[in-house]
Amino acid sequence: NRLETWKQNIKAMITHTKAISGCSKICLIGLRMGATLAGLIANENEVSVSNLVLWNPCIYGKHYIREMKALALADDTISNDMGQKIESAGFILSPETAEQIKNIDLHSLRFPQEMSVLMIDRDDRPQYITLLKKWKHDGFHTDYLVQSGYLEMFAEPHDTIVPVHTLRAISEWLTKTVQKKTSSIGMGAENLIPPQNTSDHAV
To answer: 134: closest CA among 105, 114, 177?
Structure first.
């Protein structure tokens, strides 16, 4: 069960990070399938996640598998003797792993109310409005940003452009979120003073 192994590895990383850093609060930031896995981990609530950044996550696992198959067919450097395995962008998925991923549907996620979540969408193909409406209907609020530069980030290595503006936006959101949570503990609204120290949080 490779999908479960991935999830267990992330949980072990969270536990280890807390142990070596002394931080009690963790922020998970994931891109594409990494964002989907981060969402699944936060949904299970076995490990405490304070803040979650989902950058262009895969809503449906079956769509992700279809995308990987399409990329594999378009790559003429991939061997034809892979059988039922899917090889794409240097990753190999077994038929069993592909079937496990196909069952993923982010509409079913339920996050703890105290968790802050940021969804980052693509400006050229926004796709999360319906999902966010579903989460809002279920009583969970998510911050939402639309950012440019996604395709440029996944260009050929020598043409790749790092979306610094998006990384900066994530950093600013996380800083404000941490400060807001910290300043609201045990204080009346008239006394809220945003703290400058966010060292109790690990990313």
So the answer is: 105
Cα 53–chain centre separation: 5
- Contact predicate 36/104, CB 8 Å: yes
Contact, 78 vs 46, CB < 8 A? Answer: no
Give the closest residue to 70 by CA, choosing from 56, 51, 89, 53: 89
At 140 the three-state DSSP class reads coil
Q: What is the pLDDT of residues 117-172, one digit of tens each?
A: 999 999 999 999 999 999 999 988 899 999 999 999 988 889 999 999 999 999 99
Tokens 């994530």 sit on residue: 170
Look at residues 31, 29, 58 and name the one whose alpha carbon lies nearest to residue 42.
Answer: 29
Q: With the CA atoms of 135, 137, 141 and 142 taken in that order, what torsion angle do they form, in degrees rounded to the nearest 10?
A: 40
Model pLDDT for residues 37-56, shown as the tens digit of each residue: 999 999 997 888 999 999 99
φ, ψ for residue 60 (rounded to 5)? -115, 130
